[in-house]
Amino acid sequence: MSAKPAEKLIENLGILIVDESLYMRKLTRMMLMNIGAKAIYEAADGVAALDIIRTANPDVAILDWDLPVLSGPQVIRIVRSPQVFPKPHLPIIMLTANAQRSNVSEAMRLGVHEFLLKPTSPRALSDRLLSIIVKPRPMVQIGKFYVPQPRRPIAQSELRQAA
User: What angle, 0 to 180 degrees and rounded to 10, lies between the N-to-C axes of helices 72-79 and 46-56?
Assistant: First the structure.
């Protein structure tokens, strides 16, 4: 896909950046603007993020693991509650400095679409956004979790872990 059509796809997205650090929000905003994003929302904590998701209805959320008030995983658990939250299918990209294998696994189990490590690049951000737009994965219930359909078959041991 050439840069122009990709930029057009990203241009039409409403993107929420959730990070405690004003510097990281500004940096992520600049990267998003450089790849064509126009509608960008920001939140410094998990409660503000949920409020913006309810009111501004963004197309994608870029979320840090460590947030004040409600953590990234807590926000994801709330968003991924189909009977409770109004937008349980919201694509979520986890952008964090916490890349321990346990955090990556937990984020995927909770329903994150993509995982990026800080610091990231505009290219990596663009690639993750495009993977969500161009090849959307339907949301499915796996055990007690509401998640994007896995890209690969799930092993029985993983299913038992999710239940």
Answer: 30
pLDDT at position 150 is 85
**Beta pairing, strands 92-96 & 14-18:** unpaired
In order, the DSSP letters of 30-59 are: HHHHHTT--EEEEESSHHHHHHHHHHH--S
User: pLDDT, tens digit, for every residue of 63-88?
Assistant: 999 999 999 999 999 999 998 999 99
Q: What structural domains does the chain harbor?
A: 3-162 (3.40.50.2300)
Determine phi and psi for 77, rounding to 5 degrees: -55, -40
Query: pLDDT class for 157, splitting at 50, 70, 90?
Result: low
